[in-house]
Hints:
mainly alpha, 19 helices
Amino acid sequence: MPDVQKNSQSDITGAQGGACNTAVPAPKREKSSVCPDQPACSPPQGLSVTELMETVNGVSKMSIAHEIVVNQDFHMEEMALSPDSLESKIKETMHNAFWDHLREQLSAVPPDYTYALQLLKEIKEILLSLLLPRQNRLKSQIEEVMDMELLKQEADHGALDVSHLSTYILSMMTMLCAPVRDEEVQKLESISDPVQLLREIFHVLGLMKMDMVNFTIQSIRPHLQEHSIQYERAKFQELLQRMPNFLDHTTKWLSQAAAEVMTPPPPPYDPPEQITSSPADETIKDNPISPSMVLNQGYMNLLHWDPDNEEFPETVMMDRTRLQEIQCQLNQLTILASVLLVANSYCGPKLLGSTQFVDRLKQIIKVLLEGNQSRLDEALLSISDQVLQEIQQALVDLNLPALSKENVASLSGQIHSVAKEDNCVRSIIDQRIRLFLKCCLIRGVQPSLRDLPGGITPIEEELAEMGQRFSCLIHHNQQVFGPYYAGILKKVLYSPQESEASVDSI
């Protein structure tokens, strides 16, 4: 057994460098399970329909709360259907049939107000839902003007004034809508057809409901952020109570990470001359194996996860899409830094000293790479042509000799070769970016930026953004699921005797 450092629970859930630092309550101590509150393992049993629905509902609530906390841009919006889609055509047909039938009812002699009363009832409910808790006067007014019993009596006597009610509804909408909806509400006032007016009122009310939902999300976000760790952990524990084997993939993921930490593979290449060593290279060397080292390795493994591997850790499932986005961003930055490194070796000190030139080169490469990850060979052909053109023009502007034919061919060939995954420069750059991200987890983003490995300094700004995003995401996950990770790693890293002895320290 390797030299394993018996760290405390805080080794996994404790403070971490960076701006996303929060405290985690210590879990209850329990000797017989992976998690302090996890039930003893038992054979999986089928769930009843009721239990299945409760499970789905619990997952949904936890996912929405998690999304609101970790995604600052999270909001609800109207689902846009393609005009040519079957769903869109069916929806349009059904809606037209409803409004045509309403028109027929109102045009009948005497008028039939059956559908109109149903619509007015729904409109009343929507208006009430848009009120804030303190708006009691408006609530009473809406209840009085749109008293459904009274309106039904008026309809029975043929005295229901739909136009008057529509005018009142528009006045309420003007009062309650967000400023962004003012123009849309004002346009409704010019509609004279009562059926078309009701149809458009419903459309705008739907948008106002969405605005209210997004306002509510913004309002509760600080509260959710304050209590999200306890809430998500409690919801996950409920799932674990129903499905005791719900941590199987997480256990396998951490076991694999532990095996890698215990027997790390040798580096595939020696760094090229352009890539120098940095203090960050020694960050995780010569340290005894600890639970946090294994966990960080597990997190890093998520950034090269095989998309065909469905055994994604249960505890990170809600962030799978975000991690895939970071993985895609990492791959793009690897290509960007690799091309810049190759190009810089042909530029000479004067061009390299021009921040404006390097930034222009970087922006051109980023634009040509955007959306072309699946066609990397084609993208690099375009990048090669543009990079050569920029270098030659910059040399002319500085009255320097242009690149020779041999250098042009060499530079073009080296840029093309970056498309190969086993390319030496690309492999080293990829390794250095991953080292930076790992250091972000260990030391925080800002300290890691001060010790950037050679070869990736031109993309420092992009690395800072990605590092902050990755470390905040991982830190939140670590805070929520730390007790579960501690229980798993206690069994993975320690022998039964050591595990029993370490109960009080993990």
